[in-house]
């Protein structure tokens, strides 16, 4: 969508490959709002890995502009990014109309299945895993991990020299770095977003 276009008041989505047109939500034909609300609440665990997926996709879009990828591939990355951003807006509470004959609950369940597959393919762990796993006494604070581990976990190893040159050599240093600071480091958009998504997870208590 171009910058000059007008956003609709609701998120009409064709995320799931379907030839059926999107239809307005009609309460009498859909599952109760309560069940939809419960499903949305259960999907909150995907917000963190979804942020990582979006950051990775943004990086692919950014790099594809200057690469030799075919127009079809570039279009695929842009479409994927748009779909992921739309899913995130739904999980964050934006109104939406399910496509075709889907009820809102069925559509959310299909989104859940897609997210589970995408997260599994990327080797990500759901935020709830860290809450459910074992003895909390043995848990290491995310900011206490080694800087190299942090860079590796977030696919930032290639930028280590940039961080070190600017006095960023620990995870705590990185946590104290603002979004404006990251822009001034001339990091790619995808790299900046991965860093911001990681520390948003700490603030939200999902890490």
UniProtKB/TrEMBL annotation:
| Residue spans of biased composition, Low complexity class | 1-22
For this protein, the record's SMART domains field holds: SAM
Q: What is this protein called?
A: SAM domain-containing protein
- The segments labelled Disordered in the record are 1-31
InterPro entries, alphabetized: SAM, SAM/pointed_sf
Domain SAM, residue spans = 139-205
Natural source organism: Vannella robusta
Q: Which Gene3D superfamilies would you find in this protein's record?
A: Transcription Factor, Ets-1
